[in-house]
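Pilot study result, target chain (315 residues):
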Amino acid sequence: MNNVRFACVALLLVTLSACEQETTGWYGLIERERHSLSAPVGELISEVLVREGDHVSVGQLLLRLDDQSVSARIVQREAEMAELKALRNELIQGPRNEAIARAESAVQGAQADVLDAEQKWQRADQLVRSGAGTQAELDQFLAAKDQTAARLEQARQQLAELRNGTRPEQLLQIEARIAAAQARLTLEQKALQDLSLISAHDAVVDSLPWQPGDRVAQGAPLVSLLIDQQAYVRVYVPADARERLIPGAQLMVQPDSDIPAFSASIRYIRAQPAFTPFYALNERDRARLMYLTELALPASQSGLPTGMTVEVSLP
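Predicted structure:
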């Protein structure tokens, strides 16, 4: 009986040893680079032009957000620009002849007021000297004479300002205001363009979580694309195999299908270890740290579907 037990144990150990020797591969997945487009602002979705699974090309319009608010702001910015440019043209042209004529008339009227005030003050002074007037009346006429002289000087300065025309500093100020208004207009025009989401790659639409009429928050993912011609294998390798693997090394890849095994080169190995997803773990490797590794697929296998399970092993 003991001999039978010993034989059974020996057979089991041999079987386990054989299984351990055969288990040399690691499971991974076919992946593609993702390109996500998010909402630039919180707005309503006005139109979705593609569906999940559609093949899209570079520059193709995928989705539009409502643009009424941005369009209204653009009209406002354009009106500001028109106003500032008209003001600049007015400054360049200088004052109208009619404005100069009015200023000249104001100077002449002020000169007449000064002459009248001077005569009244002289008469009041004579009355005070003869004893027929009072000092208070003389002071009132003196104040009126000074006021008319001040108004005359003000009218002369205004006329000189009109005749001299626009100062260079005024033109610099209006140019700066125009530049600032142009920058605001450019920002609004860019915001309008951003409301139309366009594909930057030849890709497949993987996810469209929203529908027309939905209101999305700023930064919410709107479209997820899988980029064509960039398929690769993502696999986690254990620490004991990490030392034997370097970028450019060849590994064997066996798809979970009738497709024959093929070789693929390592394009990237993460320097820091990480715990492994459940699909890459087995009974033996659960306590090990694993290293994320990516394999570049050959051109002949670029059409393998995303998400297919593969087994990766040493050549």
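One observation from the pilot: Residues 24-66+204-313 form a domain with the OB fold (Dihydrolipoamide Acetyltransferase, E2P) fold (CATH 2.40.50.100). A full batch analysis is planned for the follow-on phase.
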